[in-house]
Amino acid sequence: MTIGVKASHLTVVPQALAVAGAVMVLVWCIHFRGGLAWESSNKSLIFNIHPVLMLIGFIILGGEAIMSYKALPLKKEVKKVIHLVLHTIALILGIIGIYTAFKYHNESSITNLYSLHSWLGIGIIVLYGIQWIYGFLVFYYPGGSTGLKSESHPWHVLLGLFVYSLAVGNAALGLLEKLTFLESSGLAKNDAEAYLVNFTAIVTILYGAFVIFTVFSRPAQDDSSYKAI
Amino acid sequence: MTIGVKASHLTVVPQALAVAGAVMVLVWCIHFRGGLAWESSNKSLIFNIHPVLMLIGFIILGGEAIMSYKALPLKKEVKKVIHLVLHTIALILGIIGIYTAFKYHNESSITNLYSLHSWLGIGIIVLYGIQWIYGFLVFYYPGGSTGLKSESHPWHVLLGLFVYSLAVGNAALGLLEKLTFLESSGLAKNDAEAYLVNFTAIVTILYGAFVIFTVFSRPAQDDSSYKAI
Questions:
Q1: What is the reported pLDDT for A228?
Q2: How distant, in Å, are the alpha carbons of B88, B158, B215 from that of B191?
Q3: Potential cystine with B54: which of A116, A123, A141, B97 (Cβ 3.0-4.6 Å)?
Q4: Per-residue pLDDT, B76
Q5: Which residues span the domain enclosing A100?
Q6: Does A148 reside within a domain?
Q7: Is the model's pLDDT at B224 over the cut of 60?
Q8: Mind listing the pLDDT tens digit for each residue in B166-175?
Q9: What is the CATH number for A214?
Q10: Which residues in B lie closer than 8 A to residue A164 (C-beta atoms)?
Q11: Residue A139 forms part of a structural domain
Q12: Is the pLDDT of residue A53 over 50?
């Protein structure tokens, strides 16, 4: 199933959304929430690393990894390496981002893992890791048989998009959760910060939607090795 | 892109999840939250209609509508009518469900439309309505040309899945939002009700995922009119 739009044209939109989302989460965490710190007596500054790494590192770089395989006008072998490297960086930054949430909880004596956001987050990073390992072994090194590769390919794409959609949804869930906490501690519902957080979630969801559309668009070039999905 | 599982086999899982989700939201709203009422001095009972209609009416029936077109072992013309009728009911129940949230807010003097959940909800129901109108006109009555139909088909599927994914994500967002409000008003984070609400969200997300998988699975029968997607 392919929609009649060229991937290389379509990606202009998600790239603009990625820049907007990255700027928004940085403005929120640095300007409104006081900045980022790995060690600080103000524990909130440790927490602030979490949304920044999860959005810019995990969601945006993970989305770039997905789009790169379809949209870049390069040879399949080169795109495969770019796809793998970007997913590797996204996974590592995602793990560090999750670690900062635990670090903040532990240093502030807040219970870990009570919320839906945290449960889904753990599930998503584990699935992302499994998907990475399976993809590496079958498609990169040592590489499966041609039969196994072509059998696995649609599953790799669909499960990858499933995990990615969950990640995008969970980012929106996390932004809303934090905003609700801030509003219970006195932030006005029509405060500029409340709008910024909600719009960051909307930009994130739109970015995720365009990443997924890219997968179903026409590839960047007529590549004989390209298999229509 | 088709995965090697028959739709009619795959749908066993989402049907079980649909029953579980429907029971869970009813137990939550009736047993834990005091019941459902269209008119009551206890305004919370009016609110309780909202999650019940949105989950059972909009998400579950909408999902059944999506799956019916792929999984039922019937002729294309029959499946099309079932697909249309189920989506129509889902859309109507979704609109009534959204209306009850406004009714509850108005009768309890709570501001409307300040949250991400509400903004996304309005956007989703409008997109769902547009998708319904376009689908009705092009695929049902008066029906577009064969060229328009085959050109529109992948867009109809992908935009439909996009709107449906947003609806599922927004249901999880709504459940989390309500739970956070309840927890700010004293509900313990490890209370049975908190677990019930979180697990309802997880069941909803899994149901949505299996609905989407069904679209990419093998159709129920070898139907000559079936177009692989």
A1: 45
A2: 37, 39, 37
A3: B97
A4: 93
A5: 3-218
A6: yes
A7: no
A8: 999 999 999 9
A9: 1.20.120.1770
A10: none
A11: yes
A12: yes
